[in-house]
Design brief:
Length: 468
Amino acid sequence: MLAAFSGLCRSTGTARLAAATTVSGLMAAGVLSGAGTAVADEAPRTQGGATATLNGLKTYGEAVIHENGDDQRVSAGLFEMSVDGGGTLQTYCVDLHNPTQRDARYQEASWSGTSLGTNKNAGRIRWILDHSYPQVNDLAALARLAGAGGLTEQDAAAGTQVAIWRYSDGADVDAVDPQAEKLADYLEKSARSAAEPQASLTLDPPAVSGRPGDPLGPVTVHTNAGAVTVSPPADAVTSGIRITDRTGKVVTSAKDGSQLFFDVPEDAADGTAELTVQASTTVPVGRAFASDSRSQTQILAGSSESTVSATATADWAAEGSIPAVSARENCAKGGVDVTAVNKGDQPFTYQLMGAAYTIPAGASRTVTVPLPEDQPYDVTITGPHGFSRRFTGVLDCETQGAITTQTTQLRGEPSPVPIGGSASDTTDLAATGGSAITPVITGVAIGLVVIGGAVLIVLRRKDTTPGA
């Protein structure tokens, strides 16, 4: 388990996904059932797009949060992430009171699986990103629009983050620098609603099923890249499985809107296969990034050319029910939507969270499993002949309503400064975008740190508990 490096997205507070899965748009492939052989659980598939590691807060200034009669000074600005396969992302925080993790892993996600999905102001945040730093890197022009005398990169980053916090968390927060504050006020007042951006790369649906000899699909490519590379299953040469277009022509590349099919030999034994698509593109500004650990949601502010990928799985059987199962976190409903599609010739009856469901041949059904906020979940769907699919994670759909002050030490990040004090007045408790520290007596501050450590120990034990 990663060690928390908190301080209000600054951060502190909620859990995200368990290590086996990716938040927001969590998906898993279905497997065969009916007359088929039992198939073991496998790791859930992500929704697709960019996967990255958080490097930390890189360009920042200071802000003051006003809450419950206290003024708390924090760092505020741009984070940086390194993309798997190459590329760099810049992000702002949209989860003010939730924790971040050193070297946390993040996956590109849809708004619906994060707090943005239920935030009526999410579109205004997208507008701010499009009309401020770093998308607008002419700081003199940005300063003129904001009525500011001048802006440094640090001021621009801090002012932009402050404006975003006002919409993402409803926070009463001001930038410390007067010019940064003018930018924050300008962005907040000027923001208009904008649509959620398209994903950099996804496959829809992520799981298909059917009879061998029939084209299994279609799986539709959605991407902003000019072209994507299509990789067939690893054992394609020996299994005879091909990835084709609708006409049956083998494809090795595709584009946005392309439809892909699994061509499985008619005499193939019951089984499963996976295809992968990959591209190099800039990830659209405004895409959400959610962590596979306890680390708060980010929103994309800038992207270099980056590697993105997605997978889809096909399952087939000669007879019986043939389910394809996927799952997606749904913050509007406060749970996980588990969708099962039955392409077989017999009904598919399965167990989910203690209840039985039956899907007729050729039909589909989505069941929403309600889940508590910030608690690890383990949702397993089981069926006949050893069928099993498991989805694990932590639902994180809400921003906390109160600032906490539990932090852990982290070198190389900005130290918190109480209002009216200096860095030398405080313990070196660092933050992901600042640490929430109030002018409290030393004994209380130490007590809170001890409590924070105890909570982390408990969470570690929970994370290592079988089935958690």
